[in-house]
Amino acid sequence: MNQQLAGFAPTPVTARMENHGKTMLKVAMASGQDLFARTGSMVAYEGFIQYEPNPPAARQIASQWITGEGAPVMKCSGDGLLYLADYGADVVVINLNNDSISVNGTNLLAFDAHLTWGVEKVKGLAKFAGQGLWNVVVQGTGWVAITSRGTPIVVDCGRGEDETYVDPDALVAWSPNLKVKGKRSFKAGSLIGRGSGEAYQMAFSGQGIVVVQPSEDSTDRLRIRN
Predict the structure, then answer these.
(1) Cα-based distances in Å from 112 to 43, 77, 109, 124, 210
(2) Residue 225 contacts by C-beta under 8 Å, 6 or more apart in sequence?
């Protein structure tokens, strides 16, 4: 039986963050290298690792994250191997090098605690998206893991002069330096996006990337609630 399951065993550590299969994240934990992870995402760990839900360092930054109930992140610290997952979603690992990325809050799985981060309102979209769209901007040098409902596509917006249009419910992440604006479609509501009536898309332009998942996720997109 051990031989039959050998192909699923943990592999040697090669980086701080890496995939174990498509849908699981493996993090090499060490003292002084704390991690912020989505609350409830831990599926297994080896060694001695402690968890602090809704840590004070994150509480104020993410007070707008959902409904004022606190930040949906936990602080992980200790030594060992930590495995994270999000209901079978694909995991994408990003190594930032003095760079930044804007991630939809529902797609943010984990990131190094020393990185600078905050919840920001997407400019240029409020009048199209009701009360606005809020994303988490992570910047610095370190590791970030995001999720995608299926294998994502990464669009390079700098390859041409045309804008890139994305259904907001399929948007995962983008380069914060991109210009963003809304586009409303009155006659294509039944063809673009979910539901009937008018639909809107997010238009990106400039130098940078946009990450799009092959699923229109209808969960909370960090819109401010009344």
Answers:
(1) 18, 11, 11, 29, 22
(2) 66, 67
| Phi, psi dihedrals of residue 59, rounded to the nearest 5° | -60, -50
**Residues near 156 by beta carbon (within 8 Å), at least 6 away in sequence:** 209
- The pLDDT of 175-180, averaged and rounded, is 91
Neighbouring-strand partners of residue 99: 140
As a whole number of angstroms, the distance between CA 100 and CA 103 comes to: 10
User: Would you say residue 9 lies in a domain?
Assistant: no
Residues in the chain: 226
Would the CA dihedral through 8, 14, 19, 25 be positive or negative? positive
**47 phi-psi bin (left φ>0, alpha ψ -120 to 50, beta other):** left
Domain membership flag for residue 10? no
Residue 147 amino acid letter: T
Which structural domain, as residue segments, surrounds residue 182? 15-210
Residue 130: inside a domain = yes
Based on the number of CB atoms within 10 Å of its own CB, is 97 exposed (0-12), middle (13-18) or buried (19 or more)?
exposed
Spatial separation of the C-alpha atoms in residues 205 and 164, rounded to whole Å: 7
CB atoms within 10 A of CB 144: 27
Please count the structural domains in the chain: 1
pTM of the model: 0.84
Cα–Cα distance for residue pair 213/188, rounded to 1 Å:
21
Residue 171: inside a domain, yes or no?
yes
- For the stretch 60-97, pLDDT in tens is 666 655 544 345 889 999 999 999 999 999 999 999 99
Check which CATH number belongs to the domain holding 103 and give it.
Answer: 3.60.160.10
